[in-house]
Amino acid sequence: MACLYLDSSALVKRYVQETGTAWIRGLTDPNAGHECVIATITAVELLAAFYLRTRVGSMTAIQARQAETAFRGELPSHFRRLSATSSILDHAMQLVAQHPLRAYDAIQLSAAQLLQTQRLATNLTAVTFLSADQRLNRAAIAEQLLVDDPNQHP
After folding, report:
1. Going by C-beta distance under 8 Å and a sequence separation of 6 or more, which residues neighbour residue 77?
2. Where do the H-state alpha helices sit in the chain?
3. Phi/psi at 62 (5° precision)
4. Could you read off the pLDDT tens digit of each residue along the chain, which spans 154 residues?
5. DSSP-assigned letter for residue 58
6. 14, 57, 65, 147: least surrounded by Cβ within 10 Å?
7. What's the predicted TM-score (pTM) here?
8. Which of left, alpha, beta for 111 (phi over 0: left; psi -120 to 50: alpha)?
């Protein structure tokens, strides 16, 4: 059983058809047996991504509402959520000074690092950080996380 940390650019692929969708759906299927972890902020980012797509015309309002409903239905059972604690936010402030990250991306990375630290301290397997954001992936690699990009799995 792997521990997968998904940022919003990876998670959106579970609900919107694009490159990497089949791969993400397979990994996040409860029958796959993986622990799927997201930050609490990911829910906001995900819904923002759905509704932005309606504004730019790549998704209908009905499709966005269906994606939102599916996500809300799966949220309690499919994903473990990490709260944006003060320690995560403090570390995110350090990360933005070290890497060219947007605020939420720094929080995503900080949360994944906290999860990694907790797992390694208890002799559990390392976290795999899943993101389709290249800047965030470079920062995660620099911070020594194992990274996989869903766009590399068509």
Report:
1. 30
2. 8-15, 21-28, 41-56, 61-78, 86-98, 103-121, 134-142
3. -65, -45
4. 899 999 999 999 999 999 999 999 999 999 999 999 999 999 999 999 999 999 999 999 999 999 999 999 999 999 999 999 999 999 999 999 999 999 999 999 999 999 999 999 999 999 999 999 999 999 999 999 999 999 999 8
5. S
6. 57
7. 0.96
8. alpha
Residue tagged 């797509």 (tokens): 53
Measured between alpha carbons, how far is residue 41 from residues 29, 38, 97, 105, 111 in Å? 21, 8, 21, 10, 10
Who contacts 123 (Cβ-Cβ below 8 Å, separation ≥6)? none
How far apart CA 14 and CA 34 sit, in angstroms, is 15
Q: Tell how strand 35-39 and strand 80-82 pair up.
A: parallel
Sign of CA dihedral 62, 64, 68, 70: positive
Q: Which domain holds residue 17?
A: 3-152
The strand pairing partners of 146, in sequence order, are 128
Confirm if 3 and 115 have CB atoms less than 8 A apart.
yes
How many residues are given for the chain?
Answer: 154
In this structure, what CATH number is given to the domain that contains residue 84? 3.40.50.1010
